[in-house]
Amino acid sequence: MPTSPRYNVCPGTWITAAWHSGEGAPLALGQLWWGYRPHWATGKAPEPINAKSEGVATSRYFRSAFARHRCLVPADGWYEWLALLDGKQPHYITRADREPLWLAGIWTERPDGNPGCAILTEPARGAAAEIHDRMPLALDDDSLAPWLDPHMTDREALRGAVHHLDDELLTHWPVSRRVNRPANDDASLIEPADDEMG
Fold first, then answer.
1. Do 7 and 190 touch, CB atoms closer than 8 A?
2. Which ranges does the record mark as transmembrane (predicted)?
3. What is the pLDDT of residues 6-61, one digit of tens each?
4. 64 in helix, strand or coil?
5. Average pLDDT, stretch 85-97?
6. DSSP state letter for 9
7. pLDDT > 70: percent of the chain
8. What 3-state DSSP class applies to 163?
9. Is residue 9 situated within a structural domain?
10. Which residues pair with 138 in a beta bridge?
11. How far apart are CA 156 and CA 146, in angstroms?
12. Does the residue 7 lie in any domain?
């Protein structure tokens, strides 16, 4: 597990997540590869990093993981890009109270035997909708236990037990365009920057 904070987490890397790794396994906090490809997928099968919440329960590619292999990805926030006349301006979206976010995800055993995940997304809400039309599915505190419960496999029961975070808790601000380079990974990336000079 990483021993230092990360400020520019990119797809195709190991990310921290909470999940049950198997039948009867205790809840674990460990590393999942950010890239979802089931072990049975062959050839040029996609390796998505996100899955739309609207169809994840019924998609052949995702439905088994949705029923039995759900996970939570902790984060302080995420980046989205707002189109401006001089290019795209990155914004950092986070909780106004600075509490951690728990992003809903699904995981699967990949063809290489390692666990890989995708983060669920939903239509953007609240402050996030000012920047992008979609956002990660961030869950409220009461939803964390049922989302991780491997015995809760019924879609309707899960839908009734799991709720997204109140959109009034979200805020955002423009940040440096240094975030566009994956090699840049330091705390200054989440500091507010002028929206035209970032």
1. yes
2. none
3. 999 999 999 999 999 877 788 999 999 999 999 999 888 999 999 999 999 999 99
4. helix
5. 94
6. -
7. 96
8. coil
9. no
10. 103
11. 12
12. no
pLDDT at 1 over 60: no
pLDDT above 80 (res 107) = yes
Three-class SS state of 78: strand
Q: From CA 76, how far away is CA 17, in angstroms rounded?
A: 13
Q: What is the CATH number of the domain that holds 50?
A: 3.90.1680.10
Give yes or no for residue 198 having a pLDDT over 60. Answer: no
Selection from 61, 67, 65, 51 nearest residue 121 by Cα: 51
Q: Is residue 5 part of a domain?
A: no
Question: How much is the pLDDT for 3?
Answer: 59
- How many Cβ atoms are within 10 Å of 36's Cβ, its own excluded? 26
Query: By C-alpha distance, which of 8, 15, 58 is closest to 36?
Result: 15
Domain count, the chain: 1
> Taking a C-beta distance cutoff of 8 angstroms, is the pair 195, 180 a contact?
no
Tokens linked to 74: 């902790």
3-state secondary structure 87-110: EEEEEEEEECCCCCEEEEEEEEEC
Reading the block at residue 138, the tokens are 């961030």
